[in-house]
Write a structure and sequence with these properties.
Distance between the termini: 46 Å
Strand content: 5-15%
Oligomer: single chain
Number of helices: 8
Number of strands: 6
Strand order of the largest sheet: 3-1-6
Shape: elongated
Order of helices and strands: HHHEEEHEEEHHHH
């Protein structure tokens, strides 16, 4: 996994803690379970994390930017209030009991590849579908295609990293023949139920797939 150097531009493509939790929550029993799983992987070095800046010492210090967050620091995440706040804000306070030292990390983001490793793999004949939850979707999968450019639910724009992570999971969960625009839109709507995703963003992702030879119906 990438550690240093990393630019602000690269860091902007990574997932915030809140985005990571929202991405994984449909497959687990609540945010607390997801937060615990992410923290375990951060401590084990399976998920890479960088912060936009950090400050060292009881009263802060000269910020450095950006900075890698060592996996050995995650066991010192202040809590429970501080830990809860971290998942919302991305700012973390690490208190080291052995020497009383404090390091503050601001604007932490996670490597999308490390987070996506917690998504379930596609089910097959050796794994019953009931054992592997599918992407969150509304009940009426057979509903007619919605011509509106935006999904119905209002809310903030889904970030590019979060949408890309959803699409990677979507590709793994469904056969190519199932991946129609209408089906993908409904899947995204179920995943990001409190956010808005423009239909043309879904269309762009679908259009990036490698396609086979055109058939006569493709020209119709």
């Amino acid at each position: 996994m990438v550690r240093l150097p990393i630019t602000d531009e690269s860091l902007a493509t990574w997932l915030t803690p809140r985005e990571a939790v929202e991405l994984l929550s449909p497959w687990y029993s609540g945010h607390r379970v997801v937060e615990a799983a992410l923290l375990e992987r951060l401590m084990g070095g399976l998920i890479n994390a960088h912060a936009r800046s950090s400050a060292h010492g009881q009263h802060g210090g000269t910020p450095t930017s950006p900075v890698f967050v060592p996996n050995t620091h995650w066991g010192s995440l202040s809590g429970p209030t501080g830990a809860n706040r971290f998942w919302e804000t991305g700012d973390a306070r690490m208190f080291f009991r052995h020497n009383g030292d404090i390091i503050r990390y601001y604007g932490i983001r996670f490597d999308p590849d490390g987070v996506s490793a917690l998504l379930p793999k596609n089910s097959d004949k050796n794994h019953p579908e009931s054992a592997v939850p599918k992407l969150a979707e509304p009940a009426a999968l057979a509903a007619a295609d919605d011509p509106k450019p935006e999904l119905e639910q209002p809310g903030p724009r889904v970030s590019d990293p979060a949408l890309q992570a959803w699409y990677s999971a979507y590709q793994s969960a469904y056969q190519v023949a199932e991946q129609t625009e209408a089906h993908a839109v409904r899947s995204a709507k179920g995943m990001f139920h409190d956010k808005s995703v423009a239909r043309d963003r879904i269309r762009t992702l679908l259009g990036s797939r490698k396609r086979g030879p055109k058939t006569k119906t493709d020209n119709g």
